[in-house]
Design goal:
By secondary structure, the chain is α/β, with parallel strands linked by helices. It has a single domain, classed as TIM Barrel (Alpha-Beta Barrel). It has 15 helices and eight strands. Strands 1-2-3-4-5-6-7-8 form an eight-stranded parallel β-barrel, surrounded by seven helices. Helix 7 crosses helix 8 and helix 8 runs parallel beside helix 9. It is globular and about 50 Å long. 45% of the residues are buried.
Length: 319
């Protein structure tokens, strides 16, 4: 019996982390995903662009062009669907597919594009419960998610940098929110003009802890998925968050760390952060405006994803 129990002990920090947190692959690299066996996978135009640049895209482009036409979807979206469907052959649970970031301030267009993506997945035989639609957490994007969730289309709200964004997503009934740890940290390192920030004082880590604490204290069903890690210390400091999406290099690093370095940082005694009782559009806008980091990072993220979407479109046109 003792020998059996010994074999069941986690052998490294990655295996230990899986005992507290669902691990998601932050990559479009299929071989890396197979190696680390994550439950879910998440993609965005940046990851798909890198994946397309690192493998021969001609076959996928040909397949994308041969797909049945779905109203509202261009070639780049059809390619994203093929990547998503391939990822679902590797992961056991869900894959996220992103709505064009250039639609982040257009509720109606976001809803229409999300519906088209789901129709495209249906044409590929993918069950709707295996797909999350990624939408930037602008006020307009959150309103789109509220409509889509009511229709049974599950949403992953991305580019979360503040408690007000997360709370608005919770209130809208979003399935999942993705706060970006590393991008928050990067902003404060530049603002404070420091090279490093101690993990226990890291604004990215502390921000995710506040978001997770609010979700659990108020019994929101929305899942919290920490994203955009810069080093393994941030991951270890958030053990116990619902999900983490982690790049392959950091997944590899976690396999080299001891299992006893992982300790859950959330418990029932975690204090609930102060928050607005109700966030209408004006209160949301004011709260976001009063958070210079969140406002800057949200705008920057939308610009970056939009730029990479354009680059992916150009790559496909040249293929």
């Amino acid at each position: 019996m003792a020998e059996t129990a010994q074999k069941q002990q986690p052998v490294n920090a990655l295996e230990a982390l899986r005992g507290y947190t669902t691990v998601v692959a932050d990559s479009g690299d299929f071989e890396a995903i197979r190696q680390f066996r994550p439950t879910d996978a998440t993609t965005n135009p940046t990851l798909v662009l890198k994946a397309a640049e690192n493998r021969e895209p001609v076959e996928l482009v040909a397949r994308a062009r041969a797909m049945p036409a779905t109203p509202g979807l261009e070639l780049v979206e059809r390619l994203m669907l093929l990547y998503g469907a391939e990822l679902l052959d590797v992961v056991t649970h869900r894959v996220s597919t992103e709505v064009d970031a250039r639609l982040s301030f257009d509720t109606a267009a976001t809803i229409a594009r999300a519906r088209s993506l789901m129709a495209g997945y249906a044409a590929l035989g993918v069950a709707p419960e295996r797909v999350l639609i990624k939408i930037a957490a602008t006020w307009e994007g959150i309103r789109a998610a509220q409509v889509l969730e009511a229709e049974g289309i599950r949403c992953n709200m991305t580019l979360i940098f503040s408690l007000c964004q997360a709370q608005a997503c919770f209130d809208a009934g979003a399935t999942l929110v993705s706060p970006f740890v590393g991008r928050i940290t990067d902003w404060y390192k530049q603002a404070w003009q420091v090279a490093e920030i101690a993990t226990e004082e890291d604004p990215g880590v502390l921000g995710v802890r506040r978001i997770q604490a609010l979700a659990r204290a108020q019994h929101y069903p929305t899942e919290v998925m920490a994203a955009s890690f810069r080093h393994a210390g941030q991951i270890l400091a958030l053990a116990g968050v619902d999900l983490m999406t982690i790049a392959p290099a950091l997944l590899e690093q976690l396999t080299t760390l001891a299992a006893n370095e992982v300790h859950p940082c959330f418990d029932t005694g975690t204090a609930e952060p102060e928050h607005e009782a109700h966030l209408d559009r004006a209160r949301f806008a004011l709260a976001l405006n009063n958070n210079a980091m969140a406002q800057d990072r949200l705008a920057d993220g939308i610009r970056r994803f939009g730029h990479d979407q354009q680059c992916l479109e150009q790559l496909l046109r040249a293929a």
